[in-house]
Amino acid sequence: MKRRYKKKKEPLWARVANWCITLALAGVMIYGLQCYSDSSLKFVQLSDVHFASNGQNTTFKMTGESPKLLQDAVNQVNEMSGVNFVMFTGDQINTPYEKELEAFMPYAEKLNVPWYITIGNHDRCVGGFLNKKLYLDIVRAHNENFKFEKPYYSFVPQKGYKVIVLDTIPMDRLTSNGEIPKEELTWLDEQLEKSQKDTVLIFMHVPIIEPFPSSGHKLLNAGEVQATIEKYKNPIGVFQGHYHASKITQRGNVLYVSSPALVSYPNAFRVVTVSNTWHKVIFDVKTVETREKTVQKLAKLLVFGSNVYSGDAKDQNGVYEIKK
Question: Which helix (H) or strand (E) holds 203?
Fold first, then answer.
């Protein structure tokens, strides 16, 4: 006859401890899944297209070739995989006429991913017909993803990321300098305050940090804007145009990326992949040149100091880490 052994009852404290450990492990697993879900975001920055339907090449801008350059960029983007969106960072057109913006639109509409714009100084007419309101009306009519009423706006491309688009272009005077008014700066501060757990991507035309000095093109209140951004400690990338030059500067948790122009040598654009890991965010910044090599060679011959605009190797391609 088999002897029956009575199973010893587990003490209450042991059961409570086991439950606590189980819950803690489940919490860690859920948190880990949240951290790594949708952890990568990829976007294209196309800057300073200066589209002209009947343009002429100059020593600085290949506006006569701008439709061909834009078509090539659109084709290249459409051949890429995993692109979440495209951002045009100003000067989509070379002269501020409604017909030029309407001529630009069919090219942008061929993109097979969502696309957005910032306003550049060539995009608006002071005292003329193509003001910012009309500009945005035209963009909305051609872009189902663009629902914004103001030239500065924000959206969430996916969980864990926040896109903030700034308007740096004054309307009260004709100038190549930029400025962000007080109302917009307050709005920026509020957006950053609400996004401290996110990786923030800021897009603008006139840069906060210049790739090279130019008193006639700089952001007049750059110090104030920079102070507003840098008081926050979450990972932030700032993507800029206007100078037609490649330059990347990291200041603590903020990465400032000035991008080349499509219309000027090196006739290129940026592809950026942002990876959100457990303890850091990685920005993988790549420069993609036009495949219109004949145009690019001519642009290099015409421009003075081509290396100023192409930048050093570290300004063209690089991997930059920001700790959380």
Answer: strand 199-203
CA dist 171 to 98, 151, 180, 210, Å? 17, 12, 11, 22
| Residue 96, token pair as written in the block | 């501020």
pLDDT for 209-241, tens place per residue? 999 999 999 999 999 999 999 999 999 999 999
Tell me how far the alpha carbon of residue 65 is from its chain's centroid.
25
Q: In sequence order, which ranges of the chain are alpha helices (DSSP H)?
A: 12-36, 66-79, 98-108, 132-142, 182-193, 222-230, 293-302, 306-310, 313-316
Give the CA distances from residue 127 to residues 8, 52, 174, 242, 256, in Å, rounded to whole numbers and listed in that order: 89, 21, 9, 22, 33
pTM (2 d.p.): 0.89
The Cα-based distances of 220 to 153, 169, 175, 179, 246 in angstroms read: 21, 11, 11, 5, 21
- Distance CA(128)–CA(98), nearest Å, equals 11
CA 50/CA 131 separation, integer angstroms: 17
Rounded Cα distance, 176 and 50, in Å? 14
Rounded CA separation 300/21 (Å): 64
Residue 151's SS3 state is: coil
The number of C-alpha atoms within 13 Å of 321 and in the hemisphere containing its C-beta is 6
Three-class SS state of 101: helix
For 166-212, the pLDDT digits (tens) are 999 999 999 999 999 999 999 999 999 999 999 999 999 999 999 99
3 state SS of 323? strand
Nearest one of 291, 239, 298, 288 to 265, comparing CA atoms: 298
* Of 73, 133, 106, the residue nearest 259 (C-alpha): 73
Dihedral sign, CA of 84, 89, 94, 98? positive
In single-letter form, the type of residue at position 20 comes to C
Pull the structure tokens for residue 89: 């960072």
| Phi/psi at 99 (5° precision) | -65, -30
